[in-house]
Q: What sequence folds into this?
């Protein structure tokens, strides 16, 4: 099954079958005004989608409903700004599936978890949340000024999409207890540990964390055993006592002395670029296009200066190019092993040296 979308300009019928394999009915969309070309698109199922594929055999732009019907929520970044993409991934969590739109903007795919369509939830940032009530143009559609391309992952990642991370720390244990009712059986231990880390960050004793863990466990549809509760609470408290629990203290990165010495030896510009990439991406694949030079600390860099710093990191083995750039698709990079110790500051992970 060709789920990587390597080809550009596909016919709607071909990709209708590919999306249907993942339970997602797609419908034709007008590329000029980005509006659905059919009625009742928001309620259509796979049968209607199949019929439309026959009627709109030449359509090259199509989309699908977000939210409950498809199990997908989209973070729609309405700007061709990689720093906004990095900030969104840091705020809402990583995703294996990211799309670049026909105009160079970004769509981040997440598993639906009750989100509604929200236009500019933060008025100062050009980002929309496409959940219930919204739809998205899907790759590899061809829009008015180009194609929609997957720049990370494939369609095969849809069944394993993670949910969006909460954008802010919950205000009370009572709110946590309500959330507990929605936790799936396979994620109970992980969720309890994350919530215990959050509680332990401001707790005065293990007993306080254990009391919270018991209350949270009571809210689960299928509670954990007493032994599991105690072990999870104790583990979260140990992380806190060792100084390895940074939940609620903001995201951060860690460098070993050897890393600092090596990176500084490359020069000020490569070191600054390396630190910025680590701060934004730590253990995920990332872009380092020349447009990033415009948002460097201290002001925009000349393109020659930026390219020289990037090449220095490549030559020194600090980063590695895992996909070369092609027409319409930027190169993709990855940190070399040993350059990725970090924690996101929201209970998502714990630094490797802890």
A:
């Amino acid at each position: 099954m060709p789920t990587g979308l390597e080809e550009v300009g596909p016919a709607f019928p071909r990709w209708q079958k590919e999306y249907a394999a993942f339970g997602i009915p797609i419908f034709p969309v007008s590329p000029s005004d980005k509006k659905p070309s059919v009625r009742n698109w928001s309620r259509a199922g796979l049968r209607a989608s199949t019929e439309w594929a026959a009627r709109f055999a030449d359509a090259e732009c199509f989309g699908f409903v977000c939210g409950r019907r498809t199990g997908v929520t989209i973070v729609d970044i309405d700007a061709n700004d990689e720093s906004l993409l990095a900030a969104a991934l840091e705020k809402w969590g990583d995703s294996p599936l990211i799309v670049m739109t026909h105009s160079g903007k970004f769509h981040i795919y997440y598993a639906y978890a009750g989100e509604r369509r929200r236009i500019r939830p933060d008025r100062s940032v050009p980002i929309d949340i496409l959940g219930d009530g919204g739809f998205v143009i899907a790759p590899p559609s061809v829009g008015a000024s180009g194609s929609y391309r997957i720049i990370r992952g494939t369609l095969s990642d849809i069944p394993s999409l993670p949910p969006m991370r909460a954008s802010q720390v919950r205000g009370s244990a009572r709110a946590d207890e309500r959330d507990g009712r929605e936790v799936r059986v396979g994620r109970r231990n992980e969720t309890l540990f994350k919530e215990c880390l959050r509680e332990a960050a401001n707790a005065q004793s293990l007993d306080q964390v254990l009391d919270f863990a018991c209350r949270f466990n009571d809210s689960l549809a299928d509670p954990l055993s007493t032994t599991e509760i105690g072990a999870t609470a104790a583990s979260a408290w140990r992380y806190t006592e060792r100084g390895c629990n940074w939940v609620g203290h903001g995201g951060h990165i860690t460098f070993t002395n050897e890393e600092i010495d090596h990176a500084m030896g490359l020069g000020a510009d490569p070191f600054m670029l390396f630190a910025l990439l680590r701060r934004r991406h730590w253990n995920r694949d990332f872009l380092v296009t020349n447009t990033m030079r415009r948002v460097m600390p201290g002001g925009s860099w000349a393109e020659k200066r930026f390219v020289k710093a990037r090449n220095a990191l490549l030559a020194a083995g600090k980063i590695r190019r895992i996909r070369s750039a092609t027409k319409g698709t930027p190169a993709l990079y990855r940190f070399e092993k040993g350059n990725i110790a970090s924690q996101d500051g929201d209970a998502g992970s714990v630094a490797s040296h802890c």
Observations:
- The radius of gyration is 22 Å.
